[in-house]
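Severity: low
Component: inverse-folding endpoint
Summary: output formatting inconsistent between runs
Steps to reproduce: submit the following structure tokens with default settings.
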């Protein structure tokens, strides 16, 4: 009788252990495979408030820096209903996707899937943008969705972000890069909502030292100009007319009138306006974006 009870207890403990292990493996599998997660279904203005907008898996930032960047991301959501996310990871290829648990070999597809299956985006069109940095192969990707494809278009906005941010990644200035990313996205979305999206016909000007310090530059240039004029005035000598000058001018005019211009060439380049790019990940949603290495 005791033997039977011992056997029954052993079987029960084994079954319980198997259930716990299976649950743990299932949870780990779900975390590893992005496409096993259910896609969110938001109404207008809805979004997943619990998700962090600064996901620093590679630990490039301090806790204080993460907090500062998170506040900037929340400000964009609160003011415009637009999601803005940054992710740092060791290797995007460690994640899986699809029914066959294939590893990602394209950071652009990974960025689209991460945005979709992790539940980012605001409203029914999932408006937002994601910036992914993978340190294993020093690659990056931007993924835009919903109104993000218009506010930060592939033909202008994404290129602008790359030119502005990637050099900072190359220099290892990660906090400065992400801080500027949130500022840039804020500017792009604000202009898109209040006026019209930035494009080649409506460009966003990068702030320069001269623009930010125009008054100082004006004073310096004025002082330099005054010094040059003063010097030239003191070097001048009184010039008196001479009879030979009239003859010289007459000969010059006769010679100049005989010159002939043989060629004239005027070239014009057409301008094109910005637009939204297409593409997407495994979810079937449309995305824009770009990727590269730093």
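Observed output (run 2 of 3):
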């Amino acid at each position: 009788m005791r033997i039977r009870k011992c056997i029954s207890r052993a079987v029960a403990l084994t079954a319980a252990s198997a259930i716990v292990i299976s649950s743990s493996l299932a949870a780990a599998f779900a975390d590893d495979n992005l496409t096993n997660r259910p896609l969110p279904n938001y109404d207008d203005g809805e979004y997943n408030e619990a998700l962090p907008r600064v996901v620093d898996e590679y630990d490039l930032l301090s806790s204080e820096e993460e907090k500062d960047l998170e506040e900037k991301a929340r400000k964009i959501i609160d003011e415009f209903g637009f999601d803005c996310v940054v992710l740092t990871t060791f290797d995007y290829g460690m994640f899986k996707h699809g029914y066959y648990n294939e590893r990602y070999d394209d950071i652009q597809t990974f960025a689209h899937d991460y945005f979709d299956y992790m539940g980012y985006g605001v409203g029914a069109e999932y408006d937002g943008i994601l910036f992914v940095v993978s340190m294993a192969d020093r690659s990056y990707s931007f993924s835009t969705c919903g109104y993000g494809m218009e506010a930060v278009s592939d033909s202008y906005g994404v290129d602008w972000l790359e030119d502005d941010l990637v050099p900072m990644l190359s220099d290892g200035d990660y906090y400065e890069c992400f801080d500027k990313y949130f500022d840039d996205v804020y500017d792009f979305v604000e202009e898109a909502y209040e006026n019209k999206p930035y494009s080649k016909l409506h460009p966003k000007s990068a702030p320069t030292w001269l623009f930010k310090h125009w008054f100082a530059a004006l004073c310096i240039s004025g002082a330099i100009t005054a010094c040059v004029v003063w010097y030239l005035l003191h070097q001048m000598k009184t010039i008196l007319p001479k009879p030979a000058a009239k003859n010289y001018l007459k000969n010059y005019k006769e010679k100049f009138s005989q010159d002939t211009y043989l060629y004239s060439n005027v070239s014009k380049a057409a301008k094109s306006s910005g637009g939204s790019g297409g593409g997407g990940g495994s979810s079937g949603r449309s995305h824009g974006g770009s990727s590269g290495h730093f």
